[in-house]
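Field notebook, page 435. I keep forgetting to write these up properly, so this time I am using the form the group agreed on. The chain and the ligand, nicotinamide-adenine-dinucleotide, are recorded exactly as supplied. Prediction of the bound pose follows.
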Amino acid sequence: MVKVMADSETALPEAARGKPNPYDVALQQLDKAARVAGVSPAIRNILSQPKNEIIVNFPVRMDNGEYKMFKGYRVQHSNILGPYKGGIRYHEQVSLDEVKALASWMTYKCALHDIPFGGGKGGIKFTPRQHSQAELERITRRFTHALGANIGPEYDIPAPDVGTNGQIMVWMMDTYMNVVGFTDKNANRRVVTGKTLNSGGSHGRETATGQGIVHCIAEWARDRRFDLNGSTYSVQGFGNVGSNAAKILARTGASLIAVGDWKGYIANSDGINPYKLTDHVQKTGSVVGYPGTRALTRAEFFATSADIFIPAALELEIGVEEAKALNVKLIVEGANGPTETAAEPIIREKSIDLIPDILANSGGVVVSYYEWLQNKRSERWELEEVEDRLAKRMKRTYLSVTEYAAMKKCDWRTAATAIAVERVSRAYVERGIFP
Ligand code: NAD
């Protein structure tokens, strides 16, 4: 059975660092983009609230025979451009406002790429690391059952996010299939993406988000005439996104010099092998204690001088203090929403480039779309085909964002969101608002 990845307990509770509400941050980003895009206040108002907010409370039998209650969420932000699409998070800090923010970013991410999907997100508030595989399976199946017809292959399509993986997606798929009927079972494979290869997943999906990040970095390096060979980078979060980005970026000759996760931070200015570090994390559950590295505090990690910083953990990790401390040329947002609004002007003043989440980490949903298409057509694409398509799409979208930003004289986040909001707006204008 596939091992559930180390989940994401946080060393510090959110409130202790005074993080803002993620949905407020999402709204601030929307407002700025809506102004630049010149969309009507009506469209801005529609996008400022999700269409549906589903909360389910459900009991699950634990291994010791006791029953425990769980709270699960699914937020469906927009489906004007296609079925709701977005990940499922298992984490103790999952909240309605967090899921609302994440769902809205999915709407903009899909629209930015012109993928025919809308935006959704879901999660369960608990710490998966504290549960056995059998309990995780029962929690997942019971959550899927509780969501019922609120998900579906042409309606709302979940995928992995923090604390979930291909095995969890396969349990969701199997539960959904067994509930909706037998004759069209195979037509329902695409109710989730990010599945394992054996059970209908796509080649290249597991590495897609990390690969997309590296495509963005390569485009940035070409535009800035920056040589990646011999450069340095740091990564916060070493799960699916952080570890794959680190491994793929290492192939350019860049060197990983600092990394951290829920348990702590480590550094080695001579470089850390991301492949061996992945093995260490699989064995021990954290990057901490990796041989040949020294321990850092979180503050020291953010002050570490490197060329590129990839936040790939949770949202709002870069506040004002972190932005002041950062000593890098480029931030590439692997995580969704890692940067507070108040930190952005500081980053700009320091002339640090920032490739925003909805562009930088969009490789995941792009290949999720390819997985969905393969399932729908009963096809299996070669890895090479998936990677070629992803590379072309990432480069095209990267170029569209930088060109738009130059034209409108705005930052890349605003440009990316504005392109997305314009697309959504055009659909509303053409279709009208019912009745
Ligand atoms: P994951 O569960 O595989 O890994 C999360 C990592 O973050 C772990 O290493 C964990 O230890 C670390 N972490 C958690 N809390 C932390 C904290 N407070 N400080 C430092 N590190 C912490 O999750 P993932 O799928 O890699 O997702 C990471 C981020 O990327 C999330 O923001 C997610 O929404 C985003 N994202 C994921 C995908 C995907 O395809 N999985 C796609 C797009 C965006």
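OBSERVATIONS:
- The pocket of nicotinamide-adenine-dinucleotide is lined by residues 5-8, 10-11, 160-163, 209, 236-242, 260-262, 312-314, 334-336, 361, 364 (CB under 6 Å).
- Residues 1-16 have pLDDT under 50 and may be disordered.
FOLLOW-UP: compare against the apo run.
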